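Please decode residue identities from the backbone states below.
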């Protein structure tokens, strides 16, 4: 057991934005309540081919710069050109860690419970020198869909999986980000993917990472981070309850409005934190979470949508999802 960190001494925060004013306001309000003493604001530049995008980007920037009303060391990285999500975010994190040893990272659609800030701050300090621990995840969807046992009733546990919808990490961990997947062969030769996934899923991930390196396909920044995390056999910290909700939708770069993991309610982390007696991953959580991130989750997703919304509404949402997927396919050919 330990005492929670006061809100006036939370870790530095990196806030990454683009043009979504309303959700940016909601997330920033949580940051404002936490009052981090160091705040890093990143804004990607507008795309020239998208009408009115420059005005939307500027609206977000004006709001951010005018809304810091507490004693705070503010750093800004406002890009003049559009870098795109998968270049902008890792570059922003690089920039962040030229100044800080550790910190909290939020994108504009990741809405945290206020307890997320002291939760991360305390654990960033506690696990600073435990180099197997590479990150702290704020979003934990498992308790919403499945019950799993935390034998010691601890406030968090470690996992061999990861989630970057609201997270925190250290400079020493981010330095392992392997942009070009130079160590792909080492990951394959280690057979580590077969230790944490089923044989079919492990082979899928092997092909997935190979295609990223060979053809530069699916090279989203978080896929590269997941590769780097697994290459180094990393551990992440998951809270025992969900602390961050993704409130984005079909206006996100990589998100779809029918994603069943969007808008999952948040709950406060307990105070003070109860630390686990052992740092081994929980078998129940590993099994459930592995099933959620499996590349073969169509059946699982269907079950989750119906379970969450009821049969009639669930089927209606699935029909909408199918319609949106058809529209996506048509757009690719027009």
């Amino acid at each position: 057991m330990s005492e929670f960190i006061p809100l006036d001494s939370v870790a530095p925060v990196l806030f990454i934005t683009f043009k979504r004013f309303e959700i940016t306001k909601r997330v920033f309000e949580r940051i404002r309540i936490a009052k981090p003493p160091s705040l890093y604001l990143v804004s990607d530049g507008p795309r020239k081919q998208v009408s009115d995008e420059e005005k939307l980007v500027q609206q977000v920037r004006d709001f951010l710069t005018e809304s810091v009303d507490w004693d705070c060391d503010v750093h800004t990285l406002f890009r003049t050109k559009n870098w795109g999500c998968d270049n902008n975010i890792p570059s922003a994190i690089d920039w962040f860690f030229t100044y800080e040893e550790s910190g909290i990272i939020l994108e504009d659609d990741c809405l945290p419970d206020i307890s997320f800030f002291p939760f991360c701050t305390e654990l960033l300090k506690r696990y600073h020198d435990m180099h197997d621990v590479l990150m702290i995840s704020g979003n934990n969807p498992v308790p919403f869909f499945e019950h799993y046992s935390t034998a010691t009733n601890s406030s968090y546990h470690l996992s061999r999986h990861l989630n970057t919808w609201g997270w925190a990490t250290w400079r020493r961990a981010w330095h392992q980000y392997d942009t070009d997947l130079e160590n792909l062969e080492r990951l394959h030769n280690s057979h580590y993917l077969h230790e944490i996934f089923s044989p079919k899923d492990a082979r899928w991930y092997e092909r997935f990472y190979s295609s990223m390196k060979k053809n530069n396909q699916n090279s989203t920044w978080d896929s590269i981070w997941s590769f780097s995390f697994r290459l180094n056999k990393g551990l992440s910290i998951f809270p025992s309850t969900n602390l961050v909700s993704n409130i984005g939708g079909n206006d996100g770069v990589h998100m779809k409005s029918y994603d069943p993991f969007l808008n999952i309610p948040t709950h406060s982390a307990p105070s003070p934190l109860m630390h686990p007696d052992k740092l081994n991953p929980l078998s129940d959580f590993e099994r459930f979470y592995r099933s959620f991130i499996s590349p073969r989750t169509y059946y699982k997703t269907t079950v989750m949508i119906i379970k969450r919304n009821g049969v009639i509404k669930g089927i209606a949402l699935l029909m909408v999802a199918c319609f949106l997927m058809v529209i996506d396919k048509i757009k690719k050919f027009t």
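Observation: The chain has 13 helices and ten strands.
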